[in-house]
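[Automated response] Your request has been received and processed.

Submitted sequence:
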Amino acid sequence: MRVFFSLSRILPKHMKYIRLTKEQLEELHQEFINFLATQSITGKEWQQIKQTQPKVAEQELDVFSDLIWEGALDRAKYLLNSSPQQLFMFKMEQDQIKLILVKTTAPMDLTTADGLTWLQTNILSNHVELFTAAKEYSEDRNKDIFELIQQGAEISEGTLFETISGQIS
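Generated structure:
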């Protein structure tokens, strides 16, 4: 019988981020297979690990989740956290995160296409407040981005940030 050792024995004992959800893991099925293959673990052996060494299986899922998060955060250039009356738009630059915050007092839902169309037309009206800010990263850029995601931001393409930035500069 082959005994398997988790990568977590050589990596930090706690997760840096959070474990991917079951749905996310299912979407990343092929990547997980590749991850196991880098450790010379076959599908049959993975099934055996899950049954006979559940802690090792859990640790492997944690290591895989952190690797996926790290890659996604490395590539993140823009984040968006939207609610009906506010938009928090972030742009990740080399040394800092830039923020554009849009607030509206009008009865418009900025999370809808109609609301965004209204915003583009009325961005300089009295019903819209705009704020900008910038903040240098802490020692860990990806952890800073992850904290914003934990607060409800989502990775975005940045179209809205760049559009509004162009209108207010």
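Summary generated for your ticket: The chain is about 45% helix and 20% strand. The longest helix spans residues 54-75.
If you did not submit this request, please reply to this message.
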